[in-house]
Specification:
With about 280 residues, this protein is α+β, with helices and mostly antiparallel strands. The protein has helices at about 75-90, 215-230, 235-260, 260-265, and strands spanning about 5-10, 25-30, 40-50, 65-70, 95-100, 100-105, 115, 125, 150-155, 160-165, 180. The chain is rod-shaped, with a radius of gyration of 33 Å.
Length: about 280
């Protein structure tokens, strides 16, 4: 499911002798969360009117106030322009105005609670007309144990995500097990993968493997060279010595990679575990 930005329309009305004084409505956004490496958070606003500098901030708990300065008797277009300028000045919104209608677009994609009125006489629409769009994208995951429910595969330059869970958090039947994932993603993906090293095509190339295996590669190359030497020599003594050296380097290579490889790796991929000491 594609992510979308919330787009909201506000149809404003004129102030009638200070009728909008200290009145307000609520609007919400998705904002980058700087307390995490990759993440977003919800930010809730209340938008209130200060008519001819005679209003007072409602100070709604847990929400950020946006003050709209207007004058007594301002018509609906003037009120709409004031709202547009205030919201467009925030990093989390872009806004435009057409007569008495303000169109507000969230800067970031993601689902938020729809705009709502508290005590104004304005009309609001979100996701119900061809102009407006309902924001989509969850800030939390339905996957409690993603390692048991989500897999991926790479084919060429494309990566596919598959899961045996649907967006309603229900396990799929065996017949449909592991199909395309249908969840919204906002906070990003953390992918563990195994990559093949780059191919060595010249003598000057450096092996694209962990440096602990460099000596093992030398043993493998020497094994191959001594094997070729034994097969091409016309001198039986030279061939016998070459075969002995080939066997020696082959043992060294097998010990480094196969027998002790899993114990010697330090920077290769794979699941890791730390076992603390028992202090009892």
């Amino acid at each position: 499911m594609a992510l979308a930005k919330e787009i909201t329309q506000i149809t404003c009305k004129a102030d009638d002798g200070g009728s909008l004084q200290s009145k307000y409505f609520f609007i919400n956004s998705v904002e980058t969360d700087t307390t995490t490496d990759v993440g977003y958070k919800l930010v809730e606003y209340y938008v209130w009117f200060d008519v001819s500098s005679g209003g007072s901030d409602p100070s709604v708990s847990g929400k950020t106030g946006v003050e709209i300065d207007i004058s007594t008797g301002d018509n609906s277009s003037t009120v709409a322009t004031a709202i547009k300028n205030a919201l467009d000045g925030l990093a989390n919104f872009t806004a435009s105005v057409d007569s008495s209608i303000v169109t507000v677009t969230n800067a970031n994609k993601g689902a938020v609670e729809d705009i709502s009125n508290f005590n104004t006489t304005f009309n609001f629409s979100t996701g119900h007309t061809f102009v407006t769009t309902q924001g989509t994208g969850k800030l939390t995951s339905n996957f409690k144990y993603p390692e048991a429910s989500v897999n991926y595969f790479i084919r060429g330059d494309h990566m596919g995500l598959i899961s045996n869970y649907d967006s309603e958090n229900e396990t799929r039947t065996a017949r449909k097990s592991y199909t395309a994932i249908d969840h919204n993603v906002v906070n990003g993906l953390l992918i563990h993968y195994y990559g093949n090293p780059k191919k060595v095509t010249a003598v000057t190339d450096k092996p694209d493997v962990d440096n602990l295996f460099h000596s093992a590669i030398v043993d493998y190359v020497k094994k191959c060279l001594y094997m070729d030497r034994a097969g091409t020599s016309n001198d039986g003594n030279i061939a016998q010595v070459a075969m002995g050296l080939m066997a020696q380097h082959e043992r060294s290579f097998n010990n480094a990679v196969k027998k002790y490889g899993t114990r010697k790796r330090s920077k290769t991929g794979g699941t890791r575990a730390i076992v603390p000491a028992d202090f009892k």
